[in-house]
Amino acid sequence: MAITAVRPEVEKKKTALVDAMIKQELENMRVLAKQKSKKKKKGKKKKGKKKKKKGIKLPGAKYIRDRDPYDLLVELIQHNIVKKLPPTSLKEFIGEFNYIHSMLDDVKQ
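Below the sequence we write its predicted structure tokens.
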């Protein structure tokens, strides 16, 4: 009987407390939203000078920056720095199944 008498008052206090907490959270969210919108407005970019295009960062890049890549490749092949390989198809790289390795996998399990 005491529970039925006290329960409505406790529920009213609890709902009032929860409502106050929800109002506080909503207020905090509004303040944060205003701060974020202000930060976005401050981030405007000014039109100014365009950035220079950066060159190749390699040793000796100043010697090759004006040359054609094809001519550079030809010169590298002539000096045996790069090998010119004959054209190959993908079928030439396909081998047969490695039975020994698969048998070793079965033994390990």
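The helical segments are 2-42, 61-64, 69-78, 99-108.
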